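tool_call: predict_structure(chain=1)
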Amino acid sequence: MNEAMQAFIREHAIHEIECVIPDMTGMARGKIVPKNLFLAEDSMKMSRAVLTITVNGEFADYARFAGAHDPDMVCVPDASTIRLVPWAMEQVAVVIHDCEDFDGKPIAMSPRAVLRKVLGLYEARGWRPVVAPEMEFYLIAQNNNAHEPLRPPTGRAGRSEIGRQSFSIDAVNDFDPFFQELSTFCSAAELKVETLIHEVGACQMEINFSHGDALALADQVFLFKRAVRETAYRHGIFATFMAKPMEGEPGSAMHIHQSVVDTATGRNVFSRDDGSASELFFHHIGGMQRYLPAVMPMLAPYVNSYRRLTRHAAAPINVRWGYDNRTCGIRVPPSGSEARRVENRVPGVDVNPYLAMAATLACGYLGMVQGLGPSAPMEGSAYDLDFELPRSLEDAVELMQASSELSEILGREFVDAFCAVKEKEFETFNRGITAWEREHLQLHV
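tool_result:
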């Protein structure tokens, strides 16, 4: 057992440890283990099929784990991830685990292993990605009937938001008790949240993280979603990370800012010595333009995700790029040469953070090593152009399965398993009949 983890458990008088792995959806799966048992064991065993559970709790039709063939995997704690669970009634810690085979090799379809694989490709070139996620989410009134539309919650003033309160300080302050406790939880769990703003939608908020290592930030986003939900429960409301939770309101994104530094010098490889943009910067954009459509299941993973990607809704419909142009899927924010970066505006906030970061970095990497050139930057509105991204989950899965380049980067086993999960979810969704169908087809066709 790692000495740092032992010291953490002693220092905080921990009673139990949540031993978790992120599954394909980004949910926390695992076991709650008493302190003594955790200290006595180096790992835990779980079925590999756990990684192929769909968002609605079914197992994907993935042939490798069918019937009698359901092998275990070894889940090894990553000592760098141990943190307090600040909302727990007792002293509880959480540790994120890596999934390995019994010979110590990573389980190829584990989301954390997929991100590690992509980061390893950068490392082999002497590069290190730097990322900064921006997360949008809605606070909503508690609801017990899934057939009823969601609505904003009641704040301190005793009213729900009416109309748009974009960037309003007072609208955020209306939920001060919630945000104050969330801030306390984030501090205790070492989640490096930077800023909070009110976004465009009714009771839609945005949290920005400090830039840093992609794996560490994926861990933080994974834990942050849990912290937000738990804080909301304690204040009699819900928080949702659906990409498009309310009709007539904007969707919620997880924009990812990304750059690449030279590991030997620490210099941003997107900039030349004279401060101008480098060839690698443009190749990175070119790779994103070429390959983002094929990783869409990792950036828009559910049927609901595609409701967000519509014209004139602060969400992209194509892979155009531009300088400080928010109509584009790929935006280059204003910055100095050391902070030159690319913002991927395609991912919804409903993503698995490990897979979203692996996907966007894989696209940029392919552009850099293949020397792909980008299109000319957009001067006007990218909404005036055609759709270039898949319009549905079904189409997106087909594109992902057909990309041999991405299968090599991400791993064929992962692509097959992940697409099997998405296909199962789509199949389950198609069994349901929507309110729209009843309203417009029941008496008119």
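agent: The domain at 120-436 is CATH 3.30.590.10 (Creatine Kinase; Chain A, domain 2). Proceeding to next step.
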